Fold:
Amino acid sequence: MNSYDVAIIGSGPGGYVAAIRCAQLGMKTALIEKYNTLGGTCLNVGCIPSKALLDSSHHYDDAMRHFEDHGIEISGDVKISLKKMIARKDQVVSQTTAGIDFLMKKNKIDVYTGLGSFKDATHITISKEDGSFEEIETKNTIIATGSKPSSLPFITVDKERIITSTEALKLKEIPKHLVIIGGGVIGLELGQVYRRLGAEVSVIEFMDRIIPTMDKAQSKELTKTFKKQGMKFLLSHKVSGVVTNGDQVTITAMDKNDKEVVITGDYCLVSVGRRPYTDGLKAENAGVKINERGQVDVNKYLQTNISNIYAIGDVIKGAMLAHKAEEEGVFVAETIAGQKPHIDYNLIPGVVYTWPEVASVGKTEEQLKENGIDYKAGQFPMRALGRSRASGDTDGFVKILSDASTDEVLGVHMVGARVADLIAEAVVAMEFRASAEDISRMSHAHPTYAEAVKEAALAATDNRPLHS
Structure:
């Protein structure tokens, strides 16, 4: 029987990063993955493939709607090959997962393919596809089994017409009318992909706005932009039924006045969130507690109730984000090694990779009001930037919220071109407890989208933006 210092169950961003850090710290490490490719949901059926399709569809959208503005004339019809688009996405995924294979070999991490489950607190059984079993011994285990798409109790996902994000990434045809249940990140990203390609897209959201966990101003701006792009929204609607009849899906919902609304389409994407995935883990054999929401309970060290077993990522409480899982993977590896690492969950950024992009870190304006914190707000529109006008990306803004008395930055919220990258500036500033004035006094290259951050900081400091 092979023995290890650490075994990680699950090879998503949290799991494989934890494995690398453990190996870097001199621990003999095993990584267990039930699928034939490493990388988990993010690399295989989540972050990476969705961004590949977003980028491909963005190119097509530019050709159809924006090239002429730039003096680029295309003779003949611009055609879509969804088959090639999906094939390119698959190639990107293959290259990325192969990169993880390389990193495992480079760091001398033993990879086991099969379903990992606890025999007890120090032994893991690996069930392989051919029906055989293997057992390993480990001093420490990190549970990194991730999440799966959620549904609603009355919806039967047939994976053909009623689909999840996994199926939406490999459709063989462009929907005529894609109806999306859920106005969160995943639904909006995939909705924009197919809207660009010509589908009619309707989004049904239970709350009164899309991306409801982000700042209200971001929801308003993104809704306005999406409506210009042709997407339709049914907000404050509660879905009550979804049925298929041949190639047609019928969705019934109740609006805020309890009036029934019926929507029909040829595909329905159920995008109502994700659930922690612990199926087959047999956590009870090790004595590990799982709460009523299906999450593995952990303490501040990300330790379960069994001291040598830890859990990270989507399977524990908190935002289901790949970069959160990565930070937690490093945190646990360094904790096991006797170091004293740190994570500030308030400073884990959130991003929506639509166009315009949406990015946030820290507290929203609604949260500050709810907590009775006196604050200042500075906002700057992207349309006032020379760089935005040059590229034609004038939708959006940057908003900075700072403490009214100390000027410390409490939250930064952005909508616009490349804000998924710009948000890192805000994270760095907040990690070092910068004030809005600190940001306003830093030189930002001209012309760039990043100038909006400086201008918003000037607006928050003493309401003196230079360009608006």
Observations:
- The chain has three domains: 2-148+275-343, 162-272, 347-462.
